[in-house]
Amino acid sequence: MENLIEFISSNLQIVYIIILATFVGVELIKSIPAVLHTPLMSGANALSGVVIVGAILVMLHSDPTDYLALSLGFVAVVLGILNVVGGFAVTNRMLEMFKKKK
Known about the structure:
Layout: H1 2-10, H2 12-30, H3 34-44, H4 48-61, H5 67-97
Helix pairs in contact: 3-5, 4-5
Pfam families: PNTB_4TM
Transmembrane segments: 12-29, 41-61, 67-91
EC number: 7.1.1.1
């Protein structure tokens, strides 16, 4: 418990940024009309690219004998890639709905 309190007190600005980003995100999502919600959320899934880059960096800096870190990094990369591809697929499908048919 002391480690957690020490971490929070030493990184107080980061905690404030996370709290502020959470409130801003909730307010943004609440103000979006239902018609635009699905395309925007599927496009937001592309932010999983940050997870992919972070997982690759964790895997690069981990010890080659640390199989737990390597396997968790691999799972994070695979799930992040699935999320990115799924987000783009949903966005493409939504955009196809608005095209005029011949």
